[in-house]
From TrEMBL:
Pfam families, alphabetized: Phage_integrase
CDD domains on file: DNA_BRE_C
Family matches, as InterPro entries: DNA_brk_join_enz, Integrase-like_cat_sf, Integrase_catalytic, Integrase_recombinase_N, Tyrosine_recombinase_XerCD
Chain ranges passing through the membrane: none
The protein, known as: Tyrosine-type recombinase/integrase
Tyr recombinase domain boundaries: 151-335
PANTHER family, per database record: INTEGRASE_RECOMBINASE PROTEIN MJ0367-RELATED, PHAGE INTEGRASE-RELATED
Keywords from the named record: DNA recombination, DNA-binding
Family statement drawn from the similarity comment of this UniProt entry: Belongs to the 'phage' integrase family.
């Protein structure tokens, strides 16, 4: 090999090293170059692509993001997905934050900004999966969401819970329905979506279990008291919700209820109980109340399963993998909560925290959903 050959080889090595250095600074790997020239990728605008994404996501995601996707299409409809920069996404999120509807429970539009970024991340994640752009070219992943503030919801003391029970069961145009809703959410800590999705096929009368289908596609069997089971069956029998696959909870006319029933219920409770309106109490506060009581009395593992939370992706407490509670322990918590024996719970004597009175001589269908708070010493506080 001549000196000239050696010099040419050295120059080639230096040029290759320089090219690799430039690619590294640009965030490009040699593998990215094998994807083909950028001009060969599909050219897609937001107006064309957002409807495709909307059809590919779950109904819950579609409902959560539809408002923000519409805004994106209105502003960037004719632009290509590859034309938007991270700074423009940040500007759009800030615009959503400043123009968010101001309500009493508003938190400065932080939620609107967060959802704007999440909606765009959903679009770009699908675009990456479809090969429209690479993960390196994804601008949404380089935009930071605003930090979430701590929730103002908290567990209710038992005297306040008793006021809600009593008012729901004695006022309004359908107190029987509202009493059933309050009891269902207090006893199971389910979300609104879980209650609205109930059908007759979700009721296991023999084992006193109801199947809850909630956000994220989670499905679980939740123990309930014989009293609640009897009232759910009676409600379905009297209002036409017994057919398999049809919604269980209905108005007196037989029409299925919607989320609007909950809005009406809490608006009415706020009129009769001013503190409900002042603190903006909602159904989710009942979930906080029950789960706080379960955690204090039966521990974190039982509360975790009672809530229907998933173990996947939870790295905060690795011990939870080994101490997962079983449905029998959840049933024991329900027995303590209601004072009624459960088919899956150990035969242990508990003092009821929903109804403190001895009703052993009454059948489940005869026991009240919302006991009178003034008849006797009153329920034990859930937060003891």
């Amino acid at each position: 090999m001549t000196n000239r050959d050696i010099a040419d080889h050295t120059n080639q090595v230096n040029e290759t090293s320089a090219a690799r250095l430039i690619l590294a600074k640009l965030g490009i790997t040699p593998a990215d170059l094998l994807d083909g020239p950028a001009e060969q990728r599909a050219v897609v605008t937001f107006a064309e692509y957002v409807p495709r994404v909307a059809q590919a996501v779950s109904a819950g995601s579609r409902q959560a993001y539809s408002t923000y996707w519409k805004r994106v299409v209105d502003i960037w409809g004719a632009r290509q997905l590859t034309d938007v920069s991270p700074s423009e996404i940040s500007q759009l999120a800030e615009r959503a934050k400043t123009t968010a509807t101001q309500r009493r429970n508003t938190r400065g539009g932080r939620s609107a900004a967060e959802h704007t970024i999440s909606a765009l991340r959903c679009i770009y994640n699908h675009a990456v999966a479809d090969g429209i752009l690479t993960e390196t070219d994804n601008p949404a992943r380089r935009v930071t969401k605003p930090r979430r503030l701590p929730s103002t919801r908290r567990a209710l003391p038992n005297n306040r819970l008793a006021e809600i029970n009593q008012t729901a069961a004695t006022t309004g145009n359908d107190p029987t329905l509202d009493a059933l809703l309050i009891r269902l959410h207090v006893e199971t800590a389910c979300r609104r979506g879980g209650a609205l999705a109930l059908t007759r096929a979700d009721l296991d009368e023999n084992q006193c279990l109801i199947q809850l289908r909630e956000k994220g596609g989670t499905v679980r069997w939740q123990p309930v008291s014989p009293t609640l089971m009897a009232h759910l069956l009676g409600h379905a029998d009297g209002r036409g919700g017994l057919d398999s696959g049809h919604q269980l909870l209905r108005y007196g006319s037989g029409r299925p209820i919607t989320r609007r029933r909950y809005d009406y219920l809490w608006q009415r409770l706020g009129i009769h109980l001013p503190w409900v309106a002042t603190q903006m109490v909602t159904t989710h506060w009942l979930r906080h109340t029950t789960l706080t009581w379960v955690e204090r009395n039966f521990g974190y593992a039982v509360a975790h399963v009672f809530a229907g939370h998933s173990d996947s992706g939870d790295h905060r407490n690795a011990t939870a993998t080994y101490v997962r509670a079983h449905i029998q322990e959840v049933a024991a918590a329900v027995t303590a909560l209601t004072g009624e024996p459960h088919p899956l719970a150990p035969a242990t004597k508990f003092v009821s925290l929903v109804d403190p009175y001895d009703r052993s001589d009454e059948g489940p269908a005869d026991r009240p959903l919302c006991p009178e708070p003034t008849a006797g010493p009153g329920p034990v506080c859930l937060l003891v």
